[in-house]
Amino acid sequence: MGPVVTVVPVREDAHRKQIHLAAHFPGVNHNTVWSDPAARSQVEFDSFVHLAQVAERAKFDFFFLAEGLRLREHLGRIHDLDVVGRPDTFTVLAGLAAVTDRLGLAGTINTTFNEPFEVARQFATLDHLSGGRAAWNMVTSSDAFTGENFRRGGYLAHADRYRRADEFVTVARKFWDGWGDEVAHRGEQFSVRGTAPLPPSPQGHPVLLQAGDSGEGRDFAAAQADAIFTRHGSLESGRAFYADVKRRAADRGRDPDHLKVFPGAAAVLGDTAEEAAENAREIRRSQVSPQTALNFLEQVWGRELQSYDPDGPLPDIEPVFDTQAVKGRVLHADPREIVATYRARAEAGGLSIRELVIELNTRPQFVGTPQQVADEIDTYIQADAADGFILVPHLTPTGLDEFADRVVPLLQERGAFRSEYTGTTLREHLGLPVPQQRSDARQVG
């Protein structure tokens, strides 16, 4: 993201699309600037409360919480970024339900290593406790290292992950719909018979989110999700992705407007464009320290690289194939292909190790004055490159304070973002219908 140069038709004010915004708790990753004096705990409840209450004050749609099921290991020790730990998703969101009134509460829960009844009950409980504000980010995993934490262990091949996920959600829906009746299902992945533990929640079902850009991920979202979380940074790629997933939803007989598209993005502000650009450069360098840069390369090379200069060229050695420097991270290509791509990119740009890693890991960003950022966000929405954005701050927990205070009022002034909540449930915030009770809730699949 950055200055928008493509001229596209946008809607007049009378037909202006409404922007949807979500706040992502940054958690344990290289996007968080740990060294900033203002940074606070990643696990204390006060941090979650601060971000959630700022998001609610700014009338955001929902708070988004990622999840990690196992701490990564780097060269035989716990990865530096994981030493703070990872709290349980449902515990945090249930606590936030008590200190917020309207903000949606979205949690990431894995379909590969959990069971449909348990997850259906947990989300139905959260939806009741919060008055209809729960959302489930449905993710899959092909990571055997993570699977070792679970009784079933092991992992699923890439092609099998979404088959399991699709059936998993189908069974969960039957439990959400099955109050007062027997719930039964027999399929390739699950064979269950029981009763729904709770009556329908205030919004019928929790809102379903999905994160995945692959063809299988897009198909899964088109069939099952209410919103899809993506990472398309340019206006052109965003419009192409938006059109593709909306078409896939329509092909399945759905209203395309009932599948919302949410790219993840960061926002960096300054009083001038030049100040914002300098702030963005400093944030990127803080996110990728010299040690972080070397650690990142070790994940691909599969070997210790601490003797290399982070401000020097890429290692001239080849990657190792019989080991993995970081357990808990899946490489989706042959390391030799990845290394070749890195070398070509570094050579073309004259980049050092650290400069390359910064470039590879820079999240799509809105950078500018508050007015410029508001203009660019609105342009993306009105040009059908997104329905909203999940904003990922670089600082925990105060990273969205300035955006809430300086950008949101500008979006409200132009009539593109709500000034007050008009509904009480997350489905109402997003303009999504309440699911009808399914006729197959008590039938054997």
TrEMBL record:
Organism: Tsukamurella strandjordii
PANTHER family: ALKANESULFONATE MONOOXYGENASE-RELATED, C2H2 FINGER DOMAIN TRANSCRIPTION FACTOR (EUROFUNG)-RELATED
Enzyme class label: oxidoreductase
Annotated family: Belongs to the NtaA/SnaA/DszA monooxygenase family.
Keyword Oxidoreductase assigned: yes
GO MF terms, alphabetically ordered: monooxygenase activity; oxidoreductase activity, acting on paired donors, with incorporation or reduction of molecular oxygen
Entry binding sites for FMN: 108, 158, 162, 214
Protein name: NtaA/DmoA family FMN-dependent monooxygenase
Alphabetic keyword roster: Flavoprotein, FMN, Monooxygenase, Oxidoreductase
Domain of life: Bacteria
Domain Luciferase-like: 41-383
Alphabetical list of InterPro entries matching this protein: Diverse_substr_monoxygenases, Luciferase-like_dom, Luciferase-like_sf, NTA_MOA
Assigned EC number: 1.14.-.-
